User: Fold this.
Amino acid sequence: MAEPLQKAIEELSKLPSIGKKTAQRLALHLLKSSQANVDSLVTAIADLKSKIRFCKICFNISVEEECEICKSHKRDRTILCIVEDVSDVIAIEKTNEYNGLYHVLGGVLNPLANINADSLHIKELLKRIERKEIREVIFALNPDAEGDATSLYLTKLLKEYPIKLSRIARGLPIGGDLEFADSATIGRAFLGRIAL
Assistant:
């Protein structure tokens, strides 16, 4: 096999959910594609790394210091949804059922992977809560051991503040990821959230 093709297959197989066979099909597809299509893909990937940053307020992705959600005056600024990752924000936004703000933790507590409270955006969360604009915090973490442990930890931290604490309903399967749930399921989970 030609070395550039082999190198492309190796690099593509490093992507999530891409095995060697899929990487080979993708590499061969790119090889057969026009130069303009390949250049467009290369530019899009380069722009992804050079133009995207994390919002200084909520840690969602953005092209500016503040993301579109944090800048929007149409959002309910009294409700804050805590999620694990940017992919969860994208999944929730697709439902059109939630109109508050977000706080992306950047992960969940996982001692086995050396992820502790200092590894997450918890200090920034507490600063947002201390501003006294937030009246409700919704936990929308994945319903697995790490998500539940993180929700419990944050619930204990936030109990001293005069805010309502709730979590999305468990319409999502245990061990499932928000990212892979359909919009209707996530939407119903928000409508059926329960107080903590």
